[in-house]
Task: structure prediction
Amino acid sequence: MATTVENAHDLLKKGYTLYEQTFNAKPQWAGCAPGRVNLIGEHIDYNDGYVLPMCLPVVTVVIGSRNNSNSIHIYSDSEKADNPRDIQFDVPSVKKLTPGSPKWANYVKGVVNIFNDTVAKVPGFNAVVLSSVPMGSGLSSSAALEVATYTFLESLTDEKNLKLTDKALACQKAETDFAGVPCGIMDQYVSVMGEEGSALLIDCKTHEARHIPLGDDHHYVFLVINSNVSHELSSSEYAVRRTQCKTVLDKLQRVSFRDVSLKSLADKKSQKILTDAEYKRGHHVVTEIDRTYKGAHALKEGDFETFGKLMNESHDSLRDDYEVSCKELDDISHCAQSIPGVLGCRMTGGGFGGCAIALVHKDHLNDVIAKVKVHCVNNPTPTFFVSTAYQGATHVSLAEWPHYHY
Ligand code: GAF
Result:
């Protein structure tokens, strides 16, 4: 059976009590932000492409109140967070924040820092952090933490009418500056702007985003298959891929991959100046941009068959051209693609572990799960959950707890 996940309400309840126990007071606000799964459009958000993620019903919550001091005190409930899980530091107006250890706190500090620089002076506060987003699974637990922190700070400072794009870009900058990951805009965009029942088509060149309703044909569902292989290699290899793509553009004397056609990539002059690896990286980017655009159109039209085929092609391209898959994700995708009722399956996220996503007819769900488990018996046991498109970040007022409101 597919597993169920702890929902936002359960986490808020747990967090409220944890806050009371930790700080001997009542929390006033919560910022709540979801993880995401990308349906198609991988490794092209930093290449001016299109991406099509949706929010998942797994969330991170930051719950707290002002503490009338110049100190920020945060406790992380996550067992996977590195130690110490309890940290204190001065507000940025007293002492400049810098990244350091523990690593989990860099996501929070990065957001506090940029919020203080660009929106409003951050006051002292106490907070607890809880999450149901699996860490290291490519479902964007880091963006969820950044966006939940930013959302919490908006409530704390009463600055809730900020532009959503600015919010997403600030969280992306926090990740780059404080966690050292040169990520694209996809994860923070969808965690901020996602809508229930829709995927988000993001044009990463213009930064425009459009909701793509997933329709009411409930015969097909997206199944997230977690390989349970931690995607640790991903940050170093991620930076390598970014550099290779930049080299391709420089060598072809183009500013954007949107100006590169398959024909120009394959012509004699390009073949002479590009290495094999560079050609393959460029080939993935150009073809994935095309697949994502077509995929969004197919989903909008309810054409699941076409979407499934594009998912399969995307996996092949990530495996062969971009070389960011791994044996376990290939096993899962290959096996799932061969099972009746599965229209498509691909790795999702940064790669080198983490999750795959399959488009499955709901009558075949249990069969698919059973067969993938049997086929992947030599790998870490995969886990499964059916993903529905959840809403993006929300402010929660806890003043009238337990009758809180969004
Ligand atoms: C990670 C990054 F954070 C995203 O920006 C994106 O590039 C993704 O890998 C790959 O599509 O999640």
Summary: The pocket of 2-deoxy-2-fluoro-alpha-D-galactopyranose is lined by residues 38, 42-43, 45-46, 140, 183-184, 186-187, 349-350 (CB under 6 Å). The chain has a mean pLDDT of 94. Residues 1 and 366 are 6 Å apart (CA to CA). The radius of gyration is 21 Å.
